[in-house]
Amino acid sequence: MDAVVSLAGVTKAFGRIRAVAGVTLSIAEGEFVTLLGPSGCGKTTTLRLISGFETADAGDIFIAGRRVNDVPPYRRDVNTVFQSYALFPHLSVAENVGYGLSVKGVARAAIRGKVAEFLARVGLTDKAKAMPRQLSGGQMQRVALARALINEPKVLLLDEPLSALDAKLRQSMQIELKHMQRNLGIAFIYVTHDQEEAMVLSDRIAVMNEGRIVQLGTPEDIFERPGDVFVAAFVGDNNFVPGTVARIDGSTVEIVDFGGTVWKAPLTRPVAVGRPVVLALRPQAISLDAGSDSNGRGHRVAATFRETIYVGTTVRITVALPGGHLVEVQGAPAGFRIDYRALRPGDPVAVGYPTEAALVFDRP
Amino acid sequence: MTRRADTSVVLRRWRGPVLVFGPPFLFVLAFLVYPYLTVFENSFYRVADYVVVRDFNFDNFERAIGGELYRRVLYVSARIGVIVTLITLPLAYLLAYYAAFVARRWRHLLYFLVVTPLWTSFLLRVYVWKLILGRTGLVNNVLTSTGAVDEPLSFLIYNQFSVCLTLVYILLPFFFLPIYTSLEKIDPAYLEASADLGAPPLRTLIRVIVPLSMPGVITGAIFTFCLSFGDFVAPALVGGPGGLMVSNVIISQFGAAFDWPFGSALAVLVLIIVLAVIALGSLAEKKSAGAVA
Predict the structure, then answer these.
(1) Residues B87-123: pLDDT tens digits?
(2) Predicted confidence band of residue B266 (pLDDT cuts 50, 70, 90)
(3) Which residue in B185, B190, B194, B197 has the most chain A C-beta atoms within 10 A of its own C-beta, making it the best mutation to test that interface?
(4) Domain boundary residue among A208, A233, A258?
(5) Does residue A169 sit in the same domain as residue A311?
(6) pLDDT tier, A292 (very low <50, low <70, confident <90, very high otherwise)
(7) Which of B197, B199, B291 minimises the CB distance to A90?
(8) Contacts of A51 in chain B (CB under 8 A)
(9) CA distance B286 to chain A (A)
(10) Is B172 in contact with B91 (CB distance < 8 Å)?
(11) Domain range enclosing B103
(12) Least enclosed by CB within 10 Å: which of A198, A219, A305, B106?
């Protein structure tokens, strides 16, 4: 059994609410797996089931091949980095980091050496004697990390550890976490609702919704081949155009939306003519042409310009389809083939996209 | 002209604070500071022919500290204070721990049950122990009627044991409340972090919960010690001659003995001891709270 942690049909309810509804997941040694989902999707409960702070109503949890359903948290070979860090306020940084070894009865001298080593690892050697309240958010985060990693757990569990940090610090901590995980070779199970963070960090992402894993795969899998509308909507931006399958032509599906516009998409799953579907199209995959221009590649549909939002690195342009449905186009300011600054609301434009960029889902 | 304007500005600025803080300030002055000053003043006088003579001297203090009898009463009172504090501490801690971490749905009911006795008369609650421990009291009735003993046990009441027992019962809520408050404030994440790092529950109690609740323990210990050290109802009702405490002696000096100056000197000594304990306690509390905050 190669998996460090595996869950088999794990279920947990709080009263009438099923927080985790049959989760099956297996994490390999040294793997970075992220549980990604909106708040209330069951990701934190799943993590707490692994750490032992919640007990499963059904299903089995294995850590390093041993069933741990009835093993209390203090006897599980996992450690957690808490969202609030939970550094002991009455202990110094060094005492916090050494806590795990100390309660296990490791000799003082050995603890001192290890604490120094791990404080150096997170770059906080000079803060050993400081109290937690004297640290900044980023420093507390590092202490929490050192305090967990010093125990050399089979798996490190991280519960939205970066959510309290500002954007800049979060980005640099993400890189640091990733490097540390690679160097130590410890499996990380990471909980977040931030899809970008999940993309940056993970070997695999488990997208969760309503207590279930709705899709499990590499960041590329999740982003480029989302399994359903929920994943397509949650991971990255997407335009959704509801419509009906009108024609199937070899490997291409033709979909007619409610305004009568015809869309094309690759045939990736069996669909029947007349079936209600949703077409998903990433804003970044769409190009914009003048209404009269017909030289664009890929499939083109007619629309009218609505508004431009300038974000700096990108420009977001909203256009309206004949039926009134809005579609967002996104690109680098220099990447547009037309002068978007000259557009006035109501100007005709052509929306073009490579057919293979479109995805078709059953309408939920 | 300008003078009048100034006065009215000053009046307007101070009217609010004076109206708000004036009455309580006067109250404290009249009913706390003045009586203490009087006691302090009297402790340096002497009595001749049942009249207080304003003749400055230190005889009262010499008699209180030098006299075997009074030194012993002070010692016995302090010892009872310490014993009561030490016995109440684990009881109050366990109860507070249970209420804060174990009781869950019952915690409010439990809290209510612990605090409710404070609403009934102090005197009544002490008197009840007379009915329980007395010669014809509950305990002796049960023991004699079941034949466990032939004669009512006499060591149950009118000694230091019965005083301690009664004071433990009376003061338990005063010790419980500050501990409970400090336990309730502990973020459960600390307990989870401790367990996560491999500490079994008892380890977590010793290494995390107890240090974080130290401010409450110290506050409770100060309350309990000071209240039992200076108590006079319990020793008066269930103490007997052996369980006499310093407050009883002070009262008798002001009453039967009619030696206000000597009573005042004893009261000043008690005050000094209590203030010293409070000062030490606050110092320790500040230290532990500094580590906790």
Answers:
(1) 999 999 999 999 999 888 888 899 999 988 888 888 8
(2) very high
(3) B197
(4) A233
(5) no
(6) low
(7) B291
(8) 196
(9) 13
(10) yes
(11) 62-292
(12) B106
- Find the radius of gyration of the CA atoms of chain B: 25
Confidence check: pLDDT of A339 > 70 = yes
- Read off the pLDDT of residues B12-26 as tens digits, 9 standing for 90 and up: 888 888 899 999 999
Region label for A271, one of left (φ > 0), alpha (ψ between -120 and 50) or beta (otherwise): beta
Last residue of a domain, one of A215, A233, A251: A233
* Interchain contact B150–A (C-beta under 8 A): no
Q: Which residues of A29-68 are buried (b: 16+ CB within 10 A; e: fewer)?
A: eebbbbbbbeeebbbbbbbbbbbbbbebeebebbbbeeeb
Cβ atoms of residues A276 and A244 within 8 Å: yes
User: What count of CB pairs under 8 Å joins A to B?
Assistant: 67
As for the ipTM of the complex, it is 0.85
Residue with tokens 């109860």: B95
| CATH assignment at residue A150 | 3.40.50.300
Mean pLDDT of B266-282: 93
Both A214 and A256 in one domain: the answer is no
Q: Determine the angle formed by the axes of helices B160-184 and B68-97, rounding to 10 degrees.
A: 40
Tokens 């160097």 sit at which residue? A183
Q: Are the beta carbons of B197 and A131 separated by less than 8 Å? A: no
Q: Do A88 and B195 touch (CB under 8 A)?
A: no
Point out the least confidently predicted range of A155-164, A179-188, A313-322, B113-122: B113-122
Residues 203-262 of chain A with CB under 8 A from chain B are none
Express each pLDDT in A102-123 by its tens digit.
999 999 999 999 999 999 999 9
